[in-house]
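Note to self: the last two entries modelled the partners one at a time, which told us nothing about the interface. This time every component goes in together.
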Amino acid sequence: MTPRATATESARPRVEGEREAEILEAAVDLLLEHGYDRLTMDAVALRAKASKATLYRRWSSKASLVVDAVHRSKKSADPQDVDTGSLRGDLIAAFCGPTGMTERDSTLLLAAVITALHTDEEFACMFRERFLKPKIEMNQRIYARAMERGELASDCDLEILGPALPGILMHRAFILGQPVTQDVVERVLDTIILPAATGVRK
Amino acid sequence: MTPRATATESARPRVEGEREAEILEAAVDLLLEHGYDRLTMDAVALRAKASKATLYRRWSSKASLVVDAVHRSKKSADPQDVDTGSLRGDLIAAFCGPTGMTERDSTLLLAAVITALHTDEEFACMFRERFLKPKIEMNQRIYARAMERGELASDCDLEILGPALPGILMHRAFILGQPVTQDVVERVLDTIILPAATGVRK
Amino acid sequence: MTPRATATESARPRVEGEREAEILEAAVDLLLEHGYDRLTMDAVALRAKASKATLYRRWSSKASLVVDAVHRSKKSADPQDVDTGSLRGDLIAAFCGPTGMTERDSTLLLAAVITALHTDEEFACMFRERFLKPKIEMNQRIYARAMERGELASDCDLEILGPALPGILMHRAFILGQPVTQDVVERVLDTIILPAATGVRK
Amino acid sequence: MTPRATATESARPRVEGEREAEILEAAVDLLLEHGYDRLTMDAVALRAKASKATLYRRWSSKASLVVDAVHRSKKSADPQDVDTGSLRGDLIAAFCGPTGMTERDSTLLLAAVITALHTDEEFACMFRERFLKPKIEMNQRIYARAMERGELASDCDLEILGPALPGILMHRAFILGQPVTQDVVERVLDTIILPAATGVRK
DNA sequence: CAATAAACGAGACGGTACGTCGAGTCTTCCT
DNA sequence: AGGAAGACTCGACGTACCGTCTCGTTTATTG
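The predicted structure of the combined assembly is written out below.
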């Protein structure tokens, strides 16, 4: 729950956070192998050669550890905010890149965290603050640039439009259980997002 | 202990479906009270005055029972397919009605089932067949009527457009943790769905 | 903690206590192999093919289970109360017989229970009532017979004399760590118990 | 943090033994408060304001520390070897004095050490050498004086007789859980020890 | 008097066992 | 025959304690 500083505050030569990274990596691996429900703290401890006591010293619960693990995983990092010059290009770059939703691993990790969401409200808040917020902000930046370029209708409701693409894609992946390919992303963009964004409505 | 069947059908003492409904009702109540993770089979058995053996005789797992319970619950029944004469009216009727996503209970039950989805792939298939398919079909009927009325662009990608509204709303409810009110539904409709549906894009 | 009746009360055909005996036997075996401290509940569960939940359903703690196990073990049953016609003969029969203190296993089990004694006062009471009392009573019977035969001084303080022999032998075994052989028992008898019992003191 | 050493020995700043005494005293206190099983090394470290590393630098285990603590405690020091002029007087002085077995604290500490005895055979040897041997030797001295005075039968088996009194008293205290008062000591003496010692048996 | 090395307090760590809880199975009795 | 009751196995949970270890600081001796 409370990661220590990786930074070198004053005269602290030791890189404390390294151990933590190892543990979280073990957790991510097991998560991808077995899914959230089948992941056990004992298994994480075993693979990371840590003791359960250590895990619980830092994370208050399995759910908490999992969120942290997913959060820190390279496989679920924020998609790159590449400025391609168009809204369509930016969104494709963000959602189809190596950390985007078309990657199977990213989706699996996200699924794990969504399951964990429902175990604890306090935990859900933390997740939204630490995991979701950066993604949402990056998303808003993409739309802000599009707005500046004049691609968006001036009265566009960004609070609604911003989460639309991830919402539709997650629904397809988690609820419908269908794959999220670049083709699907493009169809969603061309069918829904871009028409809505350009706001050509009589 | 006490004969509970009304035994209406001629001389058949076994009223199979009725007992099942009682059990599922108990499950729904507990689901709304505690959520999926905190729901125990023992609690369901206790409240329904059934034995766990009976539960497992009819449902292969907790997840299975929960899906069934949610499926049969009045609170999560398919939204009424009211023909209001317009796509906007039909969708508002479907998603803001007494069984729509603006009802808190409906959302809670849906959340439970989503959690259950991740425990078993075989189970997820069943869920999609029995629970999701009817909803999707009804949704498609609404869009089909709109198409007949000429409200939709002729080349409209219904496979993508159909799930868009529930996807966006679920994302808002489950991932962002924000309420789904009629106002929100209307904003999604006016900002995204209808512009995309009418397909005014050159 | 609460053994069920092995007896056939009314119409209960099943011999419920049989399973319990298996578990306790496993515990006794492990006790003799590893001693009290190294004995784990998991090991008992494993060997008895029982679950820890079952163990804790019947016994409130490891200490409690161990006492029960020792109590029921044939290896620590009450020594036979053989009437040999003399106090010396009776005591040798009792303390050097197959269940007497000269048997290594009996002593090991006793040691285990003595350790367990110190974990819980409530538990210690139970132990004294169920485990110790029968042994003490048998011991008193031996002295009572000797009294009838006129072997004991009439004013003999049986409350003190009775526990003297086991006390001296336990001290030798547990505190001094020296073996308790038949020779030792006889020396204690001839040096201490019998002189005191016959009470020839001027 | 605060210099605690009195540094009396010439120029040796490190006053080893004094710190040790503080730690052992803390251990004794906690032992009397909670008993051996409930005593934790962390608690000792905390109360003595020492670190666990320090404890383990000097004592190889909890058992080892406890024996040392009991050994050094004033409350369990060897009973004074007062020459009262009679065996009866000497034994009463030794066992009923301020460090005798009639003191509740002495008995509690002894109980702790007996429990510790069963954790490690190597440790038990050490205990017998350092803790028990002096007591036994003192006991033997008492009997030796009695022998010189002609109070004992010349063929008296001192190896058996010597440990008899403590054995009987410990059994009463630890196994039977009954108090050891001066009255009890005198009854044991008059009923058992003295008749045996004076050896009036034809 | 400053530099060095030993011993220390603090407390995280790996490991092991604890006692609890829930899922899913199985047995018994009752209707 | 089938259901209620509930004990059972399995396995994960989160906690506690032991004994080890590393860290940075204090202390005493040395240069």
